[in-house]
Amino acid sequence: RRERQLADRQDLFTLRTPKPLAVERPQIEKFVCDSIAKVLSAVEGSPYPLASTPQRSAPVDIAISVHDSARILDRCLKSLLPTLGKEDRVWLDHPAGHEEEFSRLIHAFGQSWPQTIRPTNAETAPFRVSDHGMFELSDRDLVLLDSGAQVSDGWIEHMQASLDRNSEAGIICPISDNATILSVLPAVSEHDRGHLVEAAACYTVGDCQLPTASGFCMLIRRALIEEIGGSCRVFEPGHGAVYDLSMRAIRAGWDIIAAERACVFQYPGSCNFAEERRGPLWRNSQLTLDRIWPEFGPLVQAWWGENPLRSKTEHLAWRGDSRSGVL
Fold this sequence. Notes:
Structural class: alpha/beta
Number of helices: 12
Mean pLDDT: 78
Radius of gyration: 24 Å
Order of helices and strands: HHEHEHEHEEHEHEEHHEHHH
Low-confidence stretches: 11-21, 36-51, 121-127
Helix content: 25-40%
């Protein structure tokens, strides 16, 4: 009996070589992300509960400024629809000269989302949501979104969480694959974006301050708008207005923060006011910006020299990565 007990115990603690597991690469990536998330979220006092989407704190107004084709806008709206909260309002305009093409698309979106609004001024004439009047028309925290953007799950929630964590933050911007200093994500196919968003959530550098917002997507605190107003009428929308707004916010003591878990992609070939930026209006706006805010250029260059997002950019980079929007 004693010999059998010893034999059983020896058998119990004998190490055996396990059989290899047939695990697909996405399963491995998800396991690694979840494991890292559990470890990092367990750190005492950590404000970043990874691998989870925070709850909505309040409804927002989302103003989409249309500068691209109806086909690109359609992709933007299809990515936006499943991410909306039940009380969110969506403001949509369209470029002059394309009323019929865009009106059909906006009408169809309005059927799916009743809180869709076509902005009008006092004379009931349509105006661009990127214009100065949009800041006065909205009474909530305001998201300005370019029509070439394609949002991902939890993008608003992560930006709101950054706003809530930082009481002095006035403007929140997501990271992207093509948005100048916010070009943290590599350009990948739409099929691979889900895994990339998960990987971006796992590797965190924390909320970091920015020298300027990026006009392709930003969440603006209502209190900031009430204090400093909207975009300055000296600048045309898309021609330095966002930079001027950023500098006025910083001068008033507000911070501009990168929500590095909120991912918003830019459609390939799409760029807000891309054609106009090669024209005289853009060059004149740059001269005006340099005259009003001579510290703007050196501020951005100094930030880029430090770039607290660089380690995340390098971590997510892949061979063959080439982003034309990276400074």
